[in-house]
């Protein structure tokens, strides 16, 4: 008699649980459903959400660009790597301990264009990639193809299988024009030279290739076909594959894996790595009918099941009620955050509370306009025996309700994608009960201003440290303005926003939240009226007129930072000199005019610095402080001047006069329109 009742109850409980589950998924996904295959063109605006971008990759000119696509800024091309993966993972087999050996079949068809200029020596290569993890390893440029690096190559924990299209010969390659099957390594387990087959992957005359990668999950055969493509007469799949190899993906990949592409350039070997179209079909595996559930349900008996039903309904009602209140706000936020490329870790509020000793006053690192930053320690519970712990900085936003949530999320998505060794890394986030917290790498040496102003003269920053900090900030600025696929304007460059790691490497802090959090507060006019200390002196004169930050106004802010770090004086504090008050820039300019620029040096250095370097930096600082935006040097030149490979520009004896409106295209020396520029801002310093 137990049997029929058991079945009945199972039917009651299971659908109910499924219903709740679907409700939860439904709300998170509805925010903006990424586009599905096929992609006949890639749209810069609407297709961002469908992919995860790693390294220097982007969507540009209707194509996936694994490495930068630029012909007139060739210096951006060498030594790059990138990955672009479709946003969702696919299930490749059903269960790890299933005797049934079936793997999902798939077909991936794409249009490939590997371009090289006649003067270029093509390299390094491109790959179609299946990986358990979308993250690109550091230093994966050159021979590593964005797949591995010198330390990870060959390691089974990579869990990658790729088809490489290699255009540069390494010692372990047959030639510089081959495809290969790569398993966890750039050393192919099977290679096929294409020259005898009349195919050149990166010919001097730009050529599009149709590529078919097909996998049969029953026979475990992987095949690659390739044919020259012409729009007028699209090719059919050739009869014979170029490469055909038996490989059981279960041995190398993980059950849930991502599909996408990777590529790299070297030096001097460079090429553009573009995917113009992509279609992917992955077989959906269905579990065999499984009656175990029913058997268990029947066996457990009526009383337990009745209790479960009651519990289920009670929990369900609570859950539904709770969701009603917070669903509207949270679904959007969570949905977007969870889809961030590279998936920063989601923390529980409780975890961060514990890490910061209940946000204890003694853990406080600093305060900014929008929240307080605490120091914290995460104890890694997974490795109880090793007792590893990680230092973090937790920013707790003071406002419970974030204004302009969509803007905020849009910016956060971008911030998260910025990867540079001189930008502070976003480790994770927490959004619970309307409270927002962001988690960053902890910077043990605090901010630059503390070192300049709060330490005794004995242990102030030495000259080497100061030069290293400026070089770091310049390279971060160059990355934001030129190397990232969208221009990012920092907007609030100042010493308190430059943090130092244990080796005194500079890192710019967290980005982009000010505008979305509080629009009104960002008006430069108000800053001017209020004479906000610590910001005055860093803001370019034209900003007070336009209210807009630009790449050039960031260069102005950088100039102020250079003078500040070299002179050890805050740009916001006037200097009294022979009964006159001078701003830092005006004072240094006067010293320059009078031929005694060394008197501007920080006295605490005790003459322990290299005069030529200091002189170049001060001139650079003045050049960046030019009142006319278009006259300021560009970041590329700034990096070269700091590296000592280019001399500083000549600086006139008198500071030029600021004119408004300025003549011609003073604002953007670059082609980007203002709407293309993302205004970001560091708001909270440690
Ligand atoms: C490219 O990287 C290699 C090592 O990976 C290095 O030797 C070379 O100097 C780099 N070239 C450029 C132009 O950065
Ligand atoms: C892949 O294409 C082959 C034909 O070339 C077809 O038989 C197979 O069903 C396709 N597989 C998937 C998963 O679409
Ligand atoms: C390889 O990549 C890993 C992961 O990004 C990184 O930890 C490691 O330092 C890299 N190794 C080299 C030699 O760059
Ligand atoms: C492979 O990688 C894992 C984790 O990334 C590491 O623990 C292990 O030492 C590596 N193995 C080798 C042989 O390098
Ligand atoms: C490339 O493949 C050929 C034929 O399969 C093989 O003989 C050769 O050793 C391979 N070359 C390398 C460098 O792996
Ligand atoms: C390659 O394809 C792109 C996009 O469809 C097209 O604009 C371009 O003209 C093609 N190039 C060649 C050489 O066929």
TrEMBL record:
Principal subcellular localisation of the protein: membrane
Domain of life: Eukaryota
Name of protein: Probable L-type lectin-domain containing receptor kinase S.5
Secretion signal, residue range per the UniProt entry: 1-23
Organism per entry: Prunus avium
Alphabetical list of InterPro entries matching this protein: ConA-like_dom_sf, Kinase-like_dom_sf, L-type_Lectin-RKs, Legume_lectin_dom, Prot_kinase_dom, Protein_kinase_ATP_BS, Ser-Thr/Tyr_kinase_cat_dom, Ser/Thr_kinase_AS
PANTHER family: PTHR27007
Key word Cytoplasm present: no
Residues that bind ATP: 396
Membrane topology qualifier: Single-pass type I membrane protein
Biological processes annotated in GO: defense response; response to other organism
KW Kinase (keyword) present: yes
GO molecular function annotation: ATP binding; carbohydrate binding; protein serine/threonine kinase activity
Annotated ranges, domain Protein kinase: 359-629
Any one Pfam family match given in the protein's UniProt record, by short name: PK_Tyr_Ser-Thr
Keywords assigned: ATP-binding, Kinase, Lectin, Membrane, Nucleotide-binding, Receptor, Serine/threonine-protein kinase, Signal, Transferase, Transmembrane, Transmembrane helix
Subcellular location: Membrane
Residue intervals passing through the bilayer: 293-317
GO CC, any one term: membrane
Native organism taxonomy: Eukaryota, Viridiplantae, Streptophyta, Embryophyta, Tracheophyta
Coiled-coil residues: none
Entry similarity comment: In the N-terminal section; belongs to the leguminous lectin family.
